[in-house]
Design brief:
This protein has about 230 residues and is an alpha/beta fold. It is about 35% helix and about 25% strand. The longest helix has 14 residues. It is globular and about 55 Å long.
Length: about 230
């Protein structure tokens, strides 16, 4: 299973339930290099780990929003917020394809292995562009294919999805770059942080392993900036 990469110090800032609820593929808070006074939006905030970490880094004067579509996760996130004693946080119910915030409202959009699960990724990226202030930053962790995923045999692709739900719907790195550029972002970059050995994927052997080796799966930091 792909999982987040948080330091012991970061986990120590959080209630245990928040840390245990993380199912991401990276650490977008570290990627975003947040500063006091900034406004942050986490797309698909789940149990709230990235929102709570962000809120501490943008204080004083800043705010962190978490957006999730499920009542269960929002309830958990708000319990974690109360236990952590973090006040500059607001959890919103909604879909990442239709963010319930006004235009030009946030300085940074983060997300942790959620955008690839959407069936309408261009809308998600367009919404991120809309709510960012001019000069705002898009800084997410996600899973990508390093090659042409259509070349994978169907059985291999299915095994990869069963191995980790985070990979379901993952884009090729070049597809991510193209979607961000088409939405209007500048300074687009995909930085691979970890490549997953095909031998780790349950159910794969022999030729299937070699097929996945030719189109590796990787965690990546994906960055972009809204023009001034």
């Amino acid at each position: 299973m792909v999982c987040g990469s948080y330091s012991e110090a970061e986990r120590g800032e959080l209630p245990r339930l928040a840390a245990d609820a993380s199912l991401g593929c990276g650490n977008p808070v570290a990627l975003a290099t947040l500063s006091p006074g900034e406004v942050v939006l986490d797309l698909g905030s789940g149990g709230g780990i990235d929102v709570l970490l962000s809120a501490r880094r943008v204080a004083p004067g800043g705010k962190a929003y978490g957006l999730d579509m499920t009542d269960e996760m929002l309830e958990l996130a708000r319990r974690n917020q109360a236990e952590a004693g973090v006040e500059n946080v607001e959890f919103l119910k909604g879909e990442i394809e239709a963010v319930p915030l006004p235009d030009d409202h946030v300085d940074v959009v983060i997300s942790n292995c959620v955008i690839n699960l959407s069936t309408e990724k261009p809308r998600v990226i367009s919404e991120a562009f809309r709510v960012l202030k001019p000069g705002g930053r898009f800084a997410i962790s996600d899973v990508v294919f390093l090659g042409e995923k259509d070349k994978l045999p169907p059985g291999v692709a299915r095994s990869v999805e069963l191995w980790s739900g985070c990979i379901s719907g993952a884009l090729e790195a070049k597809e991510y770059e193209a979607l961000l550029s088409q939405a209007g972002f500048d300074d687009v970059a995909v930085e691979v942080t970890h490549t997953y050995p095909p031998e780790q994927v349950a159910g794969l052997a022999g030729e299937d392993v070699e097929a996945l080796r030719a189109v590796p799966v990787a965690s990546a930091f994906i960055r972009a900036r809204k023009p001034e």
